[in-house]
Amino acid sequence: MTFKEQIQEGIPAVLPQPKPYDPSINHAPKRKEMLTADEKKLALRNALRYFNPKDHAELIKEFTEELENYGRIYMYRLRPDYKMYARPVSEYPGKSEQAKAIMLMIQNNLDYAVAQHPHELITYGGNGAVFQNWAQYRLTMKYLSEMTDEQTLVMYSGHPMGLFPSHTEAPRVVVTNGMMIPNYSKPDDWEKFNALGVTQYGQMTAGSYMYIGPQGIVHGTTITVLNAGRKITKNGEGLAGKLFVTSGLGGMSGAQPKAGNIAGCITVCAELNPKAVHTRHSQGWVDEVITKLDELVERVNKAKAAKEIVSIAYQGNIVDVWEKFDTENVYIDLGSDQSSLHNPWAGGYYPVGLSFDESNHLMAANPAKFKEEVQKTLRKHAAAINKHADRGTYFFDYGNAFLLEASRAGADIMADDGINFKYPSYVQDIMGPMCFDYGFGPFRWVCASGNPEDLAKTDAIAANVLEEMAKTAPDEIKQQMQDNIKWIQGAQENKLVVGSQARILYADAEGRINIARAFNEAIAKGEIGSVILGRDHHDVSGTDSPYRETSNIYDGSRFTADMAIHNVIGDSFRGATWVSIHNGGGVGWGEVMNGGFGMVLDGSKEASRRLESMLFWDVNNGIARRSWARNDEAIFAIQRAMENQPLLQVTLPNKVDDTLLG
To answer: Which run of H or of E encompasses 511?
Structure first.
């Protein structure tokens, strides 16, 4: 069968032969035992409903073994034989160009060079899934190959509910992930209901088909490290010779060493998983790998003396690094952490003193003991950070729930008031007031042609647009503009592409609209092929997350989720090609609501109208909410937006004289 025929086949009428478990692939750890005997039967019933009853007797033994061995039913047998990657959009079968673009993005999320656990359909974060199983993948791709522009595909946590009649202005796909009743949104609820096959953790851009590899976070991390450096340096001296220590080389965290290089510092990033270390090193995202602490100390001291720009992966536990640098008196300038602590009990964070394999065994065999060891490690981790902070290290929480889980473990991480943490979230200190409140966030695009030349042309278009805008930009956002111009000008030389021909660029609403409009005009002229717009959910308006994206909302509303819900609803009727809303995101199940979109530009007048309407709302919804929280930068930004768009009228806050409050 050709590739197109395999896509159109969906779930095969004749079952393919079982596929052997491939130990060379980076697999998800075994999930802990959560189901009763009756619930296991229910999980099997749920899995078998995808198949003709004639195949049930053959599959039930296999699915039972998967549930016992891995804690989930992945249906490995149905894994396609073709190579998984983002093909040029013209290679996909279908009646809708928009649907073909979505197929491209789905396959990009599952590309072996992109996905963390590709055989388990997990893109990043240890549990950020595109689908729960391979039957869902096959059925979804079949639906997309059949749909017209007058249908909408409805996705329930990885399950394609079906194609429904709609209209050309409607989204082609509407995605929800993990939308639980609030009282059933604790971590063990995810374990149970995911094992049953009725929900999944879509992370942010995994289950919304908009992950573009580590590049997706490189830019945000670069901006974060640059601005963190500006807090500890004077007179623009830069980060030469300064040391940044962090951890995690998985899906999102794998961006950190590359960002450190671009920011111009020395980066040490610890990672226990040898396959993750090998992947990032082989891809050129980290310069060197060291496995011994004494060698690491020697190498860092040499780099400091020479003021090198270098990134080093330490294959081992991050706690050992913090403690070793303390005893050896290695000064750390910047510190953070990006292990997947939204997922602490199932592979997101590993205990000190145990190997990677020992930890994976313990988390399934004795979850209570594993949790005890993780919490003990978090206490040690925090204690080591505190010692360095006392010497002057600037430590910031990078939104991975490190401080939250450390506090739950009883670590010495709370401020004197007993309410707040000792250390700021990077959103509170850096990204919130410097970027999000002004409307700057992770705008991204993918060249659907798969042609690197198209990506180079879009880079040049974006750079020209920003340079022109910078000439008249207000002083309040000149630094943001210059950082982004520098970024896009150096994007090609930094070799950021993994998987699809994609780019990310922090821009405000005006910048996003101007860039998208320029792309659409270039498509209309035949200069480039179609372009898929999107963004990370980690943005101005898409996410309500009290310990990350909205941690700098101080009016008491940071625990509400109206903004994210309105964002997705508004995008859906303003022209998005697909929309998604998730429970979970980067800080944990039950801790955040986050929404995203995708939009296909085809050079048409309709695409031009849609991009202007949708992108304006997608950003300014969040600025309006932030301005109502009395954030000065957001008040400035929304007033500027109202001046530029007469149809926009936003309720502004009146500030209270503090002396009246006593």
So the answer is: helix 509-524
Which run of H or E residues covers position 123?
Answer: strand 122-124
| pLDDT band at 126; cut points 50, 70, 90 | confident
Structure tokens at 631: 């954030």
Structure tokens of 166?
A: 């709609």
Q: Is the Cβ–Cβ distance between 140 and 154 less than 8 Å?
A: no
How does residue 342 score in pLDDT terms, banded at 50, 70 and 90? confident
| Alpha helices by DSSP H, 112-245 | 134-146, 187-196, 215-232
The dihedral region occupied by 17, where left means phi > 0, alpha psi between -120 and 50, and beta the remainder, is beta
Q: Which of 37, 208, 165, 303 is nearest to 583 (CA)?
A: 208
Backbone angles phi, psi at 27, to 5 degrees: -100, 155
> Between 605-628 and 632-644, two packed helices, what is the crossing angle to 10 degrees?
140
Which residue positions form the known binding site for NAD(+)? 125-126, 203, 271, 398, 586
Q: Using only the alpha carbons of the chain, give its radius of gyration.
A: 24
- Distances, alpha carbon 49 to alpha carbons 6, 155, 505, in Å: 21, 17, 43
3-state secondary structure of 431: helix
Q: How many CB atoms lie within 10 A of CB 425?
A: 26
Give binding residues as ranges: 125-126, 203, 271, 398, 586
CA distance 28 to 70: 8
| Closest to 580 (Cα-Cα) out of 17, 226, 179, 271 | 179
pLDDT at 427: 87
Q: How far apart are CA 106 and CA 244, in angstroms?
A: 34
pLDDT tens per residue across span 403-436: 989 999 999 999 998 888 999 888 888 889 999 9
Tell me the three state secondary structure of residue 594: strand
Q: What is the DSSP letter of 397?
A: B
* Residue 35 pLDDT > 90: yes
Cα(144)–Cα(152) distance, rounded to whole angstroms? 9
Per-residue pLDDT at 539: 94
In 425-561, which residue ranges form alpha helices assigned H by DSSP?
426, 432-434, 452-470, 478-489, 509-524
Q: 218 and 507 in contact (C-beta within 8 Å)? A: no
**Half-sphere exposure (Cβ direction) of 136: Cα atoms closer than 13 Å:** 26
Q: Is the dihedral of CA 645, 646, 649, 650 positive or negative?
A: positive
Buried b (16+ CB within 10 A) or exposed e, 127-143: bbbbbbbbbbbbbbbbb
DSSP H/E element including 323: helix 318-327
Ramachandran sector of residue 352 (left: φ over 0; alpha: ψ -120 to 50; beta: rest): beta
Q: How far apart are CA 18 and CA 63, in angstroms?
A: 11
Q: pLDDT tier at 285 (50, 70, 90 boundaries)?
A: confident
Instruction: pLDDT band for 27, please (50, 70, 90 cuts).
Output: very high
Quick check: pTM over 0.70? yes
What does the pLDDT read at residue 213? 83
What average pLDDT does this structure show over 38-50?
98
- How confident is the model over 113-130, as a mean pLDDT? 93
Mean per-residue pLDDT, 375-389: 97
- The predicted structure's pLDDT at residue 252: 66
Q: Count the Cβ atoms, other than its own, within 10 Å of residue 206.
A: 30
Helices (H), 73-168: 97-109, 134-146
Closest CA to 395 of 475, 331, 334: 334
Confidence of residue 251 (pLDDT cuts 50, 70, 90): low
By the 10 Å C-beta count (0-12 exposed, 13-18 middle, 19+ buried), 383 is classed as middle
Gap between the Cα atoms of 522 and 499, Å rounded = 23
Question: Tokens standing for 32?
Answer: 């802990």
